[in-house]
Specification:
- The structure is a single chain.
- This protein is α+β, with helices and mostly antiparallel strands.
- The chain has one domain: HIT family, subunit A.
- Helices cover 36% and strands 15% of the residues.
- The strands form 2 sheets. Strands 3-4-5-7-6 form a 5-stranded antiparallel beta sheet. It has a two-stranded antiparallel ribbon with strand order 1-2.
- A hairpin with a 3-residue loop joins β3 and β4.
- α2 crosses α6.
- The longest helix is centred in the middle third of the chain and has 22 residues.
- The radius of gyration is 17 Å and the shape is globular.
- The structure holds adenosine monophosphate.
- The site of adenosine monophosphate has 16 residues, from loops.
Length: 199
């Protein structure tokens, strides 16, 4: 059963162009910039650094161990494919590739996802150094679900603060981005991914 309210069978039966893509229970179709047979890549609502994207299996499963060998291969090949384009676009000299596999490990969205974060020397200096990134991933700053839960309880307050998604703009010192900004980034990345494929 798909968490987005559509079963795997119903999803497969839809014409490709009209298939809605869900990350957990979030509808993220306009944020998706790359798809393969078993995976998709999307731009992040709250990137920790520029170019921080997520790679997910199309199948809605929470845990990494549930992926089939083919899905696992496809997921990691997609990580490599996306890295190629991010390296060029962000002049990345390194990457963090991370999977928080289960709630106790910091996972907040119960749909397998690999964080792919382009890195450069000194890019976290102002925020306490490179290793701080893992703390941020695991901690409050990466916990959008908690933000949503909180915002759900304080719906009126969130509305007053003008967020379409009910997130406080200053949540975790890291603003949740608007749909238009994410759509534009996805469009740009889609185009740039195509450029690399031509070479
Ligand atoms: P984790 O804490 O490992 O489960 O990571 C969840 C990731 O999903 C974080 O990087 C969030 O910023 C990101 N995220 C949560 N909701 C959305 C959404 N609707 N669209 C894109 N990214 C999201």
């Amino acid at each position: 059963m798909d968490e987005g309210g559509v079963t795997e069978e119903e999803h497969e039966a839809m014409p490709p162009a009209s298939r809605a893509i869900y990350f957990g229970s979030f509808l993220v179709t306009p944020q998706v910039f790359h798809t393969t047979a078993h995976s998709f890549a999307l731009v992040n609502l709250k990137p920790l650094l520029p170019g921080h994207v997520l790679i997910c299996p199309k199948r809605h499963i929470p845990r990494f161990a549930s992926l089939t060998p083919i899905e696992t291969q496809d997921l990691f090949l997609t990580v490599q494919r996306v890295q190629r384009t991010l390296t060029r676009l962000y002049a990345a000299t390194a990457f963090n590739v991370a999977i928080q596999d289960g709630e106790a490990a910091g996972q907040t969205v119960p749909h397998v996802h690999a964080h792919v974060i382009p890195r450069r020397e000194g890019d976290m200096d102002e925020r306490g150094g490179g290793d701080k990134l893992y703390e941020m991933l695991e901690g409050e700053e990466g916990d959008v679900a908690a933000s949503l839960r909180e915002a759900g309880k304080a719906g009126e307050a969130a509305k007053l603060e003008g967020s379409e998604r009910g997130l406080r703009p200053d949540e975790g010192n890291r603003p949740a981005r608007g749909e238009e900004e994410m759509r534009k980034e996805a469009e740009w990345l889609r185009e740039e991914m195509g450029r690399d494929a031509e070479q």
